[in-house]
Specification:
Low-confidence stretches: 2-31
Radius of gyration: 21 Å
Structural class: alpha+beta
Largest sheet: 6 strands, mixed
Catalytic activity: N(6)-[(R)-S(8)-aminomethyldihydrolipoyl]-L-lysyl-[protein] + (6S)-5,6,7,8-tetrahydrofolate = N(6)-[(R)-dihydrolipoyl]-L-lysyl-[protein] + (6R)-5,10-methylene-5,6,7,8-tetrahydrofolate + NH4(+)
Shape: globular
Number of strands: 19
Keywords: Aminotransferase, Mitochondrion, Transferase, Transit peptide
GO molecular function: aminomethyltransferase activity; transaminase activity
Number of helices: 9
Helix content: 10-25%
EC number: 2.1.2.10
Mean pLDDT: 92
Family: Belongs to the GcvT family.
Length: 409
């Protein structure tokens, strides 16, 4: 997911989306703290400052871009051990009512009805033109509601979309009700993340596979929803924690020397190495799931029923042709940044970079972007124009760095 992350290419290139607005189930503005600069603050804001977090404006929120560790050190620590990220600026919504699945399937491309209790899926909000409005995770909880997490930069439009559709369904006699969760949200990511967390929970986390969740006590903090997911490519969890206990839980997790705080800069380079899209850079309302190489998010049943927004555009593209496709690129030399032109070997423009940065793990430049379909095959030699110079680049399989998601054997 985009997850309200940093725009690829360094913290100074922050992509600031629409200012978020938090609303309760009745459409009221949700209470949240704001600083003197007008930026909204997560429940961990004061803690970030105490820990030396370098705070920046991201999507109307004051968020840490890094701490004492450098971006490179923080990135590599996550790959080798584990890091803790504050993602409380993301929108957490609960969907109640007997028509909750019908409601969600009227907005997204995924098969929500097939989800087992406490199983989740990455999905996409789409419009009637086939464009992607946002990416999100939908979990069908055993508590008889859907738990939906959407991006910080899309809060206003996502809430308006969901609230508007809910009102339509209720007007037609449907039963659906939305509630914004007040919880904080923490992401513990890295190869030792689950080992660290297991010391503080009684549930056997080995039985919780990727994209599944469970409600449990975490280090004595009750009522936490722990979801085996994240946006780094590593094993890890996202923990939805009651807001009044968030700082306490963070302090307990940080007692383990394997855990370090990490900010937006590391979060962005980690997701790019994992080949994951950032909403607003790599996917948006002008890109379809097929162009974005996200066909796997389309439920098989939904492809047949074609009852999701934009299906008449998207489904024919699966077996047909699209003019452009998202690809991965690797290069050496100067770093590749967003909006740089992608060229054919002859120097003809064939596309544009959407995300790019030096890979701390590979010691090469990694990037993704859109190119003409004819130029999208793996192994195709292209070039990227960097400061008016042509730098060779190779179309490469993603993820650039192997992922380590936990699946049940």
């Amino acid at each position: 997911r985009g997850c309200g992350m940093l725009r690829a290419g360094g913290w100074a290139a922050l992509r600031v989306g629409p200012r978020g607005r938090e609303l309760g189930s009745g459409g009221r503005r949700r209470c949240c703290s704001s600083g003197p600069d007008g930026l909204k603050q997560t429940p961990l804001h004061a803690f970030h400052r105490q820990q030396g977090g370098r705070m920046v404006n991201f999507a109307g929120w004051s968020m840490p871009v890094q701490y004492a560790l450098s971006h490179l050190e923080s990135h590599l620590h996550t790959r080798r051990h584990c890091s803790l990220f504050d993602v409380s600026h993301m929108l957490q919504t609960k969907v109640f009512g007997r028509d909750r699945v019908k409601f969600m399937e009227s907005l997204v491309v995924g098969d929500i009805a097939e989800l087992k209790p406490d199983q989740g899926t990455l999905s996409l909000f789409t419009n009637e033109e086939g464009g992607i409005l946002d990416d999100l995770i939908v979990t069908s909880t055993s508590e008889q509601h859907l738990y939906v997490v959407t991006n910080a930069g899309c809060r206003d439009k996502d809430w308006a979309l969901m609230q508007g559709r809910a009102e339509e369904l209720r007007a037609a006699g449907g039963d659906v009700h939305l509630e914004v969760s007040e919880n904080a949200l923490l992401a513990l990511q890295g190869p030792s993340a689950v080992q660290v967390l297991q010391t503080g929970v009684s549930d056997d986390l080995a039985k919780v596979p990727f994209m599944s969740s469970a409600v449990m006590d975490v280090f004595g903090v009750p009522g936490c929803r722990v979801t085996r997911c994240g946006y780094t490519g590593e094993d890890g969890v996202e923990i939805s924690v009651p807001v009044g206990r968030a700082v306490e839980l963070v302090e307990l997790l940080l007692r383990d020397p394997q855990v370090q705080l990490a900010g937006l800069a590391a979060r962005d380079s980690l997701r790019l190495e994992a080949g994951l899209c950032l909403y607003g850079n790599d996917i948006d309302e002008t890109t379809t799931p097929v162009e974005a190489a996200l066909v796997w998010t389309l439920g098989k049943r939904r492809r047949v029923t074609m009852d999701f927004p934009g299906a008449m555009v998207i489904v024919p593209q699966i077996k047909g042709k699209v003019k452009r496709k998202r690809v991965g690129l690797i290069s050496t030399g100067p770093p590749i940044r967003p909006h740089m032109p992608i060229l054919s070997p002859e120097g003809r423009p064939v596309g544009e970079v959407t995300s790019g940065c030096p890979s701390p793990c590979l010691k090469k430049n990694v990037a993704m972007g859109y190119v003409e379909s004819e130029q999208s095959r793996l192994g195709t030699v292209l070039a990227v124009e960097v400061r008016k110079k042509s730098c060779p680049a190779l179309v490469t399989r993603m993820p650039f760095v192997p992922t380590h998601y936990h699946t049940l054997k």
